[in-house]
Amino acid sequence: MYTGKSYKLLEFIIWTRKSIYLLVLMSIIPTVLYEFFELKWLGISWTVVALLGTATAFIVGFKNTQTYNRTLEGQQVWTQILSTSRSWGIMSRDFLANPETTKLLIYRHIAWLTALRYEMRSYRVWETSRKKHNTEYQQYYYIIPENEISLKDELSKFLSPAELEKILKAKNKATQVMALQSKTLKELYDNQEIVVLQFVDFQRTIKDFFTQQSRSEQLKDSPYPRQYAIINTLLVQLFCLLLPFGLLKEFDKLNESVSGIMHGNMVWFVIPFSVIISWMYTSLGQVGESTENPFEGNANDIPISRICKIIEIDLREILGENNLPEFLQPRHDIIL
């Protein structure tokens, strides 16, 4: 998540520079052929390009709206996890007379959060975090906490060795951690350490955690529909390809209304204007693409690592601990 006022234009240009190089080349070639080799037939009707540009703008806008909605839903899911986790901590402290049992339930809950966030950071084939422009940006501007320390080392802080071994073997680690919680609560109820209403409250909260976990997993494992993604990509590429051809005759006509050094050279303005307009479309597409998957580890993703650290600190304060971890701090105004 970007926490600054605004991205700098320079870093945005650097992030999209590969597209800019290609757009410059795509603009130079038809302009040179038109001007130097007298291939005047290369100039196509501007109406065709304008219609294509309008259609492309609609589909790009549609995609960006949908990808933003995915990010918004992910933010809502993890905000709910934050809220319910605090309730879990209070219930674990106030419903139980044994401080060790309270600590067990709270530490296991932090382990559940840890397992879930590591799963959310795992790679899917449709994600863009491994594309070169994203990996370069990540290398210089921010860090992904889940890449800095292994899941085993993180879980070992909150689980017993026996539980850790069991969880690491599980396919869905977060689910199995929550299953341990439910089993412990059943034992507490059987031993009459909690009454039926407290047991029901705990189980209702576990159900809510499972609901939010499933929503988060659904966002992770359900990509933006590929049929819309490919249409968006093809239309943007086609528009950028045809745009300089559509501008050739339009700028050539301007030679009739200018004099001096610019007379006869107006067609060369096709290159910068074509690059600027095309860059606007490709940048919108690239922004939408990097927003499709809100947990993969891109700069604008939901800061689930930060949320989990906030929850950990809150819950350990509820336990009365003093040796607490530090809050995660942004690096170049980016925090995950």
Strand runs, count = 0
> What overall form do the CA principal axes indicate?
elongated
Mean pLDDT: 92
Please report which band the strand proportion falls in: under 5%, 5-15%, 15-25%, 25-35%, 35-45% or over 45%: under 5%
Helix content: 55-70%
Number of domains: 1
Which parts are unreliable, with pLDDT below 50 for 5 consecutive residues or more?
A: none
Radius of gyration: 27 Å
DSSP helical segment count = 12
Largest sheet: none
Q: Order of SSEs, N→C?
A: HHHHHHHHHHHH
Q: What distance lies between the first and last C-alpha atoms, to the nearest angstrom?
A: 6 Å
The class by helix and strand makeup works out as mainly alpha
Q: How would you describe this structure in keywords?
A:
336 residues; mainly alpha; 12 helices; 69% helix; 0% strand; elongated
Descriptive account of the structure:
With 336 residues, this protein is mainly alpha-helical. The model has no long low-confidence stretch (mean pLDDT 92). The chain starts with 8 loop residues before the first helix and ends in an 18-residue tail after the last helix. Helices cover 69% and strands 0% of the residues. The radius of gyration is 27 Å and the shape is elongated. It is built from 12 helices and no strands.
